[in-house]
User: Which sequence fits this backbone?
């Protein structure tokens, strides 16, 4: 519910910002302002798609999806990255046409004031969303926040370029600014798509979480208890860790279960909300997978 509230605000903000930027474009005829408005149009589609994916990600596990639906968030950030890339290409096409046939920019003060207002709104909402993404560990929310932040820097660059056009008399400067903005947007698009692919490929937990896991295992590691085949992964806002816990074969089932539960609780206290799977094995025995030499995809923990 918290994530959806952020995205509703993002959607409403995008609509308001588009109105301000399109008005600035109509008044000035600046291709830089047009490129800025087109990126904001992508925000509306992206925020709407993010809302859909977050709703799917929040569904509980079922018979067909026993691990839940949290990976749906990665589709949100990936699609948003692709949309940003499409917007950047369209901006380059428009700017190239204007570069071959430069046109003067009109009503600059009014246009700049409108874009500045839209930029201030975007900056405030972007900061609020990125703080929420960090707290809720949501890649969909982070993607939308970073997109808005990209929009902020885009707008600042466009404002500088458009202001310089009447001062210098260089009509070509406006489309050049538009192209520079498009290249910056393409870089952000690549980053979002790459992170989505990492998530869908079951990338391991970030370094701070890996350190927290290792600190817990160090506390319980001894001559009688050892851990190996530690694997971690993340799926949207959810995180998982699995491992083998080896202990003396003569221990009772009750004692072994108590040790396993103690380690599980310590891991869940260290990383709230993490899913923990621990397989208990006798000290000198390995699983058939290990005996057959199957590759170990364990996440490498810090030394």
Assistant:
């Amino acid at each position: 519910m918290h994530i959806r509230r952020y995205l509703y605000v993002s959607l409403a903000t995008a609509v308001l910002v588009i109105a301000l930027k399109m008005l600035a474009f109509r008044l000035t005829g600046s291709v830089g302002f047009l490129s800025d408005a087109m990126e904001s149009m992508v925000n509306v589609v992206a925020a709407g798609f993010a809302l859909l994916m977050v709703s799917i990600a929040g569904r509980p596990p079922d018979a067909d999806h026993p691990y839940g639906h949290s990976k749906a968030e990665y589709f949100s950030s990936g699609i948003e990255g692709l949309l940003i890339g499409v917007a950047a290409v369209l901006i380059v096409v428009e700017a190239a046409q204007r570069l071959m046939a430069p046109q003067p920019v009109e009503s600059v003060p009014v246009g700049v004031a409108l874009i500045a207002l839209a930029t201030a709104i975007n900056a405030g909402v972007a900061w609020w969303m990125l703080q929420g993404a960090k707290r809720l560990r949501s890649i969909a929310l982070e993607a939308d926040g970073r997109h808005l932040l990209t929009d902020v820097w885009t707008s600042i660059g466009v404002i500088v370029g458009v202001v310089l056009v009447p001062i210098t008399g260089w009509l070509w400067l406006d489309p050049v600014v538009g192209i520079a903005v498009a290249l910056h947007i393409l870089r952000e698009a690549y980053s979002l798509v790459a992170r989505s692919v990492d998530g869908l490929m079951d990338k391991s937990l970030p370094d701070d979480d890996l350190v927290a896991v290792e600190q817990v295992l160090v506390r319980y590691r001894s001559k009688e208890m050892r851990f190996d085949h530690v694997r971690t992964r993340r799926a949207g806002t959810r995180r998982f860790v699995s491992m083998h816990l080896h202990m003396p074969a003569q221990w009772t089932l009750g004692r072994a279960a108590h040790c396993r539960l103690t380690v599980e609780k310590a891991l869940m206290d260290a990383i709230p909300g993490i899913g923990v799977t621990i397989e208990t094995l006798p000290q000198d025995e390995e699983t058939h997978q290990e005996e057959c030499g199957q590759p170990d995809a364990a996440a490498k923990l810090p030394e």
In short: The chain is about 70% helix and 10% strand.
